Amino acid sequence: QSVLTQPPSASGTPGQRVTISCSGSSSNIGSNYVYWHQQLPGTAPKLLIYRNNQRPSGVPDRFSGSKFGTSASLAISGLRSEDEADYYCAVWDNSLSGVVFGGGTKLTVL
Amino acid sequence: QVQLQESGPGLVKPSQTLSLTCTVSGGSISSGSYYWSWIRQPAGKGLEWIGRIYTSGSTNYNPSLKSRVTISVDTSKNQFSLNLSSVTAADTAVYYCARDNEEAGLDYWGQGTLVTVSS
User: Fold this and answer.
1) Looking at the partner chain, which of B62, B63, B109 has a beta carbon nearest the beta carbon of A45?
2) Distance between CA B9 and CA A88 in Å, rounded?
3) Helix ranges, chain B (H)
4) Sign of torsion, CA B82 B66 A72 A54?
5) Closest-CA distance of chain B to residue A79, Å
6) pLDDT confidence of B39, banded at 50, 70, 90?
7) Is B110 on the interface with A (CB under 8 A)?
8) B98/B8 Cα distance (integer angstroms)
């Protein structure tokens, strides 16, 4: 069982906006930055959002991140078929002195 | 452009030690404020952080694996390594190495290497 809780699945149709949640605690999300990674089928994870809401160069502005208290969210607007992937939140946990990942959310584009 | 590449045996026997190396190219492993990390992913499951090392040699390990894990760095070869002892079938996974940027987090990943624990 992951320290960070994500819904196992999410779905949407092309053009829609979807959000993926990540719930934690005061020792992780509540006191540290949240990161999001996208893992396309059969590939390595790729950094999608860093420091809660920052996008690395090359990541479309359709992807956005937010954080409030001990929860964080990833929003994808203008959903496209190529967004179909697994999405993971990650954060440093002060109690564990290590990085923790959410269990991952499989996004399906219908 | 920084690139990372994992290498090592794809098959390890139970109770033995799993050893992997990550070779960094496109930049010096000892420049900048970076940690160098290992993450694994069993087939069909999520990501699990194993640990990381700073170029000074300081380390952080996942508490659930700490008794079996050693991460080391060889700056002369621009490589860092993972040793996981007393492996069982539960350690079968794709193992990734990654750069942990103080600002951007895990910003560069290797392609991953599958390690199977079986006799």
Assistant:
1) B109
2) 28
3) none
4) negative
5) 23
6) very high
7) yes
8) 16
The answer to whether A76 touches A60, Cβ cutoff 8 Å, is no
Query: Tokens standing for B18?
Result: 């799993």
What one-character DSSP code corresponds to residue A55? P
Q: Which residue of A has its CA nearest to B103?
A: A51
Contact state of A102 with B103 under an 8 Å Cβ cutoff: no
Average pLDDT over residues A40-66: 97
Instruction: Flag if B52 and A99 touch (Cβ within 8 Å).
Output: yes
| B39-54 average pLDDT score | 97
Please check whether residue A33 touches B, CB under 8 A.
yes
B33 versus B6: the higher-pLDDT residue is B6
Residues 6+ apart with CB under 8 A from A58: none
For residue B68, with 0-12 CB atoms within 10 Å meaning exposed, 13-18 middle and 19 or more buried, which class applies? middle
Contact B96 A45 (CB under 8 A): yes
pLDDT of residue B55: 84
Q: Kindly provide the b/e burial profile for residues B35-59, where b requires at least 16 CB atoms within 10 angstroms of the residue's own CB.
A: bbbbbbbeeeebbbbbbbbebeeeb
Q: Does B46 touch chain A (CB under 8 A)?
A: yes
What's the token pair of residue A23? 């719930």
Taking CB atoms and an 8 Å limit, are B47 and A104 in contact across chains? yes
Q: How far is Cα B19 from Cα A19, in angstroms, rounded to an integer?
A: 39
